[in-house]
């Protein structure tokens, strides 16, 4: 059975490029494969604007600012609820600010696609229980996994992904 990645767009500040939904699904699947996740998984990904992610960040993390991505894991200690309709383990929700992703892509000099793939991979690791805020070692471990998965996707730091081409910076 295949993984389910449910993607919704609840913003109109940034045009969602064609192929981005496929890249998000590839990113989710790449993390699950890299982590040797057992069984099919269900993940929800929602695009929002800075105002909405600011509200969510304040409500759930008590941080009064916009952020790039929020993760809402549904599992605990490797245990997940099962979606009765499809048999998938429910990993949780990823919320991406498309405005913040665009700002960061420009800041770091790569494509919006590369930034959204990074945010998706980062958030998927959170859904699987990783937390870079607990310790420096955990942060390093998480960054290594992010880079390894992005490399598998053909999106290493030294490469920019634009309109189905790979351009070396």
What is shown here, in short?
The protein has five helices and six strands.
Helix content: 40-55%
- Low-confidence parts lasting 5 or more residues at pLDDT below 50? 159-169
SSE arrangement, N to C? EHEHEEHHHEE
* Shape assignment: globular
Give the number of DSSP strands: 6
Average of the residue pLDDT scores: 91
The quaternary organization reads as: single chain
What is the count of DSSP helices, taking H or I runs of 4+ residues?
5
N-end to C-end Cα span: 39 Å
Based on CA atoms alone, the radius of gyration comes out at 15 Å
Beta-strand share of residues: 15-25%
What strand order characterises the main sheet? Answer: 1-2-4-3
- The secondary structure category is alpha/beta
How does the major sheet shape up? 4 strands, mixed
Structure description:
- The protein is of the alpha/beta class.
- The chain is built from five helices and six strands, in the order E-H-E-H-E-E-H-H-H-E-E.
- The protein has helices at residues 20-34, 50-61, 98-108, 112-127, 136-152, and strands at 4-9, 41-48, 69-73, 89-97, 159-162, 165-168.
- A four-stranded mixed sheet has the order 1-2-4-3.
- Helix 1 (20-34) runs parallel beside helix 4 (112-127), helix 1 packs across helix 5 (136-152) and helix 4 crosses helix 5.
- Mean pLDDT is 91; it is low at 159-169.
């Amino acid at each position: 059975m295949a993984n389910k990645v449910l993607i919704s767009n609840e913003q109109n500040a940034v045009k969602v490029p064609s192929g981005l939904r496929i890249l998000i699904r590839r990113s989710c699947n790449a993390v699950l494969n890299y982590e040797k996740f057992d069984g099919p998984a269900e993940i929800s990904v929602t695009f929002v604007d800075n105002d909405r992610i600011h509200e969510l960040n304040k409500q759930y993390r008590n941080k009064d600012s916009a952020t790039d991505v929020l993760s809402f894991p549904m599992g605990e200690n490797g245990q997940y609820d099962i979606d009765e309709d499809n048999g998938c383990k429910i990993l949780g929700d990823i919320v991406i600010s498309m405005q913040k992703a665009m700002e960061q892509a420009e800041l770091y000099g790569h494509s919006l696609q590369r930034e959204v793939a990074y945010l998706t991979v980062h958030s998927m690791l959170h859904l699987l229980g990783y937390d870079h805020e607990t310790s420096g070692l955990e942060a390093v471990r998480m960054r290594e996994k992010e880079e390894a998965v992005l490399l598998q996707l053909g999106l290493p730091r030294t490469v920019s992904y634009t309109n189905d081409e790979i351009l070396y910076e």
